[in-house]
Amino acid sequence: MPIPSPWSLNPDSRRWLVPPAVRQALSRHPLAHELWPEALGYYRQAAGHAMQREAGEHEDHLLLYCVQGHGEVEWGAGREVRTGAIAGSGQTLPGSGESGDLFPGQKAAAPVSRRMTAGVTPAPDWHSEPVGPGTLVLLPAGVAHHYRSSAEQPWSLYWVHFAGSGADDFLAPLLQARSAAACQVGLGLVPDFQSLLALTKEGFVLPPLLHAANTLRALLTHAALLALRHQARRGRFDVWAVQAYMQAHLDEPLTLDQLADAFGFERFHFAKTYRRLTGRAPLTHFLHLKMERAARLLDGGELRVSEVARVLGYEDAHYFSRQFRRLMGVAPSEYRGMKRG
Asked: Taking the domain 14-234, which CATH number applies?
């Protein structure tokens, strides 16, 4: 059962929870069982918004997406979280024993033993990150965490609790082996979250809920792509420049050493970094680009297979045909004869 924040909604904010019976139905449905939303919402200029969850009570995954203002998030590796005031802010974290503010199902926790204080370095087993416009925070199930909105510049954020048998596969590209993550993705996810939230207006009806489940899938894969692009732009390794270089040299038999030298990297470091950022080895990606180009040339119907091979830098047309069949599943001549569209 998700435990959303008990923050009092202002007129421009929204909170929506999927009832347990509906979640059960989604968990059994073939179009939703891998990933479905359990609760979602939007908080606009959420002054005083703060939340903490112990590892044992955080049973689903949580995505926070800040679009305005600032805040802070802190997470641990399954360590028990205790409650208390946010130092210097006048705010009390939910679960601190003020039962009148507890959301239904939320337990009051133990007395305060730890304070979440801006500018104070967390304990070694905790990690703290600032949150601002374009920050996406991912807090997987079982990870204890605190987060709070800035008192001076309160954040506006979208959020969604989600679960599913395939959730880990959607989390992996964003987490990159970390227990939780706060990454920059820019504001390109706003339409995705707006589409997801719009579906809640149709009530607890199965067709829009199935669409919401699959909208969430698209949102998470889009988030992973945006995070990758932002990471590539910030780093010295420009993956988009490498891919542009590959596209410009599809008529050549590039080697790993040539690619690495062109961008000033040692070959092993180049290959490892490229695979980390794209999920593919550089020469494997280069070969795929060649075969995609070959497919377009074959679709044109004007060049013979041997001529397509030469355009892509292959002196041996038979070798080209074997490579094409290995990647595309059919020989070049068969591909040309396929009826499409």
From this structure: 2.60.120.280
Domain limits, the chain: 14-234, 239-337
Q: How far apart are CA 170 and CA 176, in angstroms?
A: 11
Phi, psi of 219 (to 5 degrees): -60, -45
Q: Tell me: the pLDDT tens digits for 159-176?
A: 999 999 999 999 999 998
Higher pLDDT, 56 or 81: 56
- φ/ψ (deg, to 5) at 126: -120, 155
Q: Is 161 helix (H, G, I), strand (E, B) or coil?
A: strand
Tokens matching residue 205: 């009806």
Spatial distance between the Cα atoms of 304 and 318, rounded to a whole number of angstroms: 13
Residue 236 confidence (pLDDT): 72
Q: What is the pLDDT of residues 262-294, one digit of tens each?
A: 988 999 999 998 988 888 999 999 999 999 999
Rounded CA gap, 334 and 340, in Å? 12
Q: How would DSSP label each residue in 212-241?
A: HHHHHHHHHHHHHHHHHHHHHHHSS--HHH
Query: Whole-angstrom Cα distance, residue 332 to residue 317?
Result: 10
Per residue in 301-335, pLDDT (tens digit) is 789 999 999 999 999 999 999 999 999 999 999 99
The total of other beta-carbon atoms located within 10 Å of residue 142's CB is 16
CA distance 115 to 82: 9
pTM, rounded to two decimals: 0.69
Task: Report d(CA 62, CA 39) in Å as an integer.
Answer: 9
Concatenated DSSP letters for 284-321?
HHHHHHHHHHHHHHHHH--S-HHHHHHHTT-S-HHHHH
The answer for residues whose C-beta is within 8 angstroms of residue 206's C-beta and 6 or more apart is 25, 29
The position carrying tokens 């339409």 is: 191
Fold of 239-337: Arc Repressor Mutant, subunit A (1.10.10)
